[in-house]
Amino acid sequence: NSSIAEVDPEIAAVLENELGRQRDTLEMIASENFVPRAVLEAQGSVLTNKYAEGYPGRRYYGGCEHVDVAENLAIERAKAVFGCEYVNVQPHSGAQANAAIYHALVTPGDTVMGLELSHGGHLTHGMKINFSGKNYRIVSYGVQKETGLIDMEEVEEIARREQPKLIVAGWSAYPRHLDFARFREIADAVGAYLWVDMAHFAGLVAAGLHPNPIPHADVVTTTIHKTIGGPRSGMILAQTTELEKKLNSAVFPGQQGGPLMHVIAAKAVAMKVAQSPEFKERQQNTLDGARILAERLLQQDVADAGIALVSGGTDVHLVLVDLRDCALDGQQAEDLLHEVGITVNRNSVPFDPRPPRVTSGLRIGTPALATRGFGKAEFEEVADIIAETLIAGKAADVAALSARVKALTDAFPLYPGL
Ligand code: PLP
After folding, report:
1. Rounded to whole angstroms, how far apart are CA atoms 152 and 6?
2. What are the E-state strand segments in 280-357?
3. Closest ligand 1 atom, CA of 233?
4. 201 φ, ψ to 5°?
5. What is the whole-number distance in angstroms between the Cα of residue 397 and the centre of ligand 1?
6. d(Cα 61, Cα 57) in Å, to the nearest integer?
7. In what order do the strands lie in the sheet with 219-223?
8. Residue 223 Cβ contacting ligand 1 at under 6 Å
9. Is 121 annotated as a binding residue?
10. C-beta of residue 55 within 8 angstroms of C-beta of residue 86
């Protein structure tokens, strides 16, 4: 019954230091968020002790009567949030949810079509050394050089030529909406399954602030920890129960053993929170924040420093900064913002001349700051700090910029009392 500080002071220090880092910096990694304390409590609970292979009411272990309640609540709430009849809440992560889709719908060697990694796709959409790229014949679509937008004519042309069995629409770094209806038409034209990976924008969908892919797709996957702001994990959804058997058996026993019941309980909490007015307000602030950031980064002083935005703006929770004509590369820009107290990640931009370890881009997202309570005024200040830092480059007045960051973090305490 000893505390972590007594049992393992080194790890206790990591927890404390990380809490301090989260409190004292501006978190703008587009895939991150701050979970509510209720989610932390569920995830750090005795449910971690429980084995529950199988599905509610059909387990391979005794003593599942309480965890069954948690899993059923997570499923029913997710159905209500996204408007669908099928949900599987067992995937341990987004990548595992995606692995289950391949397992259920295609066989190794089949052709799968997804967005090119360097144009904003995810590793599991066909990267060469990912399981997806190793086991399937991957054909990729990309964005247009001039607009930074996915060209649906090109998607159709590639699909007709390559005849994929599965088409994935979804992204890790693309600042615009996808045309789900058009993807559906193309999938139908070539007899492919349409899978939407909404990992990034699911919170916006849940709030009704982004088109919902569910009515268009055969199957949808998501993470719960990005815009949604729930526990680190994944989920599979579908409009109907048509593929239920295939999908459920692909997750268990196809991909996983025992589900993480503490995480599933935390997913249930996240799906309850997602039905609240505060959640919708937070998603609106997330979108407003990204738009404010985009507007600032499109101003002339920023353009004069050789900085642009991929696609010229944003419809979602992130912007993709294009540094191809800037004195800073992606790595330098990430490091400089880190010095000022703003955490972002460098990211390849389409047609990036630099290698993936360096890149010529930044991906900057607003979900975590919206959760922290930031509204328009704070996002304007953040946008200004970022613009001034990137324009000044190596000559940036780090002390003065850090002081402005500190004023913001002090005004919005994170996890008070934790
Ligand atoms: N799908 C997309 C589009 C993502 O952006 C990510 C995460 O970055 C994933 C799947 C994978 O999620 P996880 O990191 O939980 O495996």
Report:
1. 58
2. 308-309, 318-322, 342-343, 345-346
3. 15
4. -100, 10
5. 35
6. 10
7. 86-88, 234-238, 219-223, 193-197, 166-170, 111-115, 137-141
8. yes
9. yes
10. no
The amino acid sitting at 235 is: M
pLDDT per residue as tens digits for the range 372-416: 999 999 999 999 999 999 999 999 999 999 999 999 999 999 999
Is 71 annotated in the active site? no
- Cα 290 to ligand 1 centre (Å): 20
Rounded CA separation 327/395 (Å): 12
105-148 pLDDT per residue, tens: 999 999 999 999 999 999 999 999 999 999 999 999 999 999 99
Q: Residue 226 and residue 58: Cα distance in Å, rounded? A: 31
Q: Kindly tell me if the per-residue pLDDT of 318 is higher than 90.
A: yes
For ligand 1, whether the C-beta of 125 sits within 6 Å is no
Q: Does the annotation place 133 within a ligand binding site?
A: no
Cα 2 to Cα 368: distance, rounded to the nearest angstrom: 33
pLDDT of residue 1: 86
Q: What is the mean pLDDT of the chain?
A: 98
Asked whether residue 66 is marked as a ligand-binding residue, the answer is no
ipTM: 0.99
Is residue 226 part of the annotated active site? The answer reads yes
Please provide the size of the chain in residues.
418
